[in-house]
Amino acid sequence: MPETIRVLVVDDESMVCAHLRTILGSAPDIEVVDEAQDGAAAVEAAVRHRPDVVLMDLRMPGVDGLTATERICAMPDAPAVVALTTFDADKYVLRALRAGAVGFLVKSTPPQDLIGLVRVAADGHTVLSEEAKRRLLAATGGEQTARERAVGLTRELTEREIEVLTCLGRGMSNAQIAARLHLSEATVKSYVSRMLVKLDCENRLQAGLLAYDAGLVPR
């Protein structure tokens, strides 16, 4: 995790931006480097400031948060994008996760939880509660195409890679996977990196969702 976590806040409501800036600014290790009110401005700000974390509202006029998420996640050394939503889970959030967002937060998240979860995102981990995960998986239950694609992709994996992917689907960290499979953390990290390429996934969260789609982890 960087010593000072640089955050870009994106929301079309200036009061929401001010609220988030106040909360995050109270943490000694977090700096809000800029605010943006639409997706186009968010992409420009991400290029200009190179933040560590982007808090991205998904529903904005003009260039929406989903499009901005796709563009920012395609950048070299892209920041961790965390989707902001008023709803606990919907198809729009799922699309943002598939576009590369590392998780999502509801706007009503308590201040201390928000600060902690921004630190989690900056440290390279998924920002997704178990309840949020459950609701998202329920929302994807009818996507036959996603299941077929996931099953096809996992056929290209080795038996060991399937084991690691299953652990990712259960939300396990590299250290937990290493202990479960009797491997070193470096070996697990290597497996995860190779799998992300094979599965055409941007991050661990996408791979974990794919494990559910493929039926490797019970819903």
TrEMBL record:
Response regulatory domain segment(s): 6-122
The keyword Protease belongs to this UniProt entry's keyword annotation: no
Residue ranges constituting the HTH luxR-type domain according to the UniProt record: 150-215
Pfam name, any one: Response_reg
Any single GO BP term: regulation of DNA-templated transcription
Coiled coil (UniProt feature): none
Positions bearing 4-aspartylphosphate: 57
SMART domains (alphabetical): HTH_LUXR, REC
PROSITE patterns with a match to the protein in the record: HTH_LUXR_1, HTH_LUXR_2, RESPONSE_REGULATORY
Keywords of this entry: DNA-binding, Phosphoprotein, Transcription, Transcription regulation
Domain of life: Bacteria
GO molecular function, one term: DNA binding
Protein name: Response regulator transcription factor
Taxonomic lineage: Bacteria, Bacillati, Actinomycetota, Actinomycetes, Pseudonocardiales
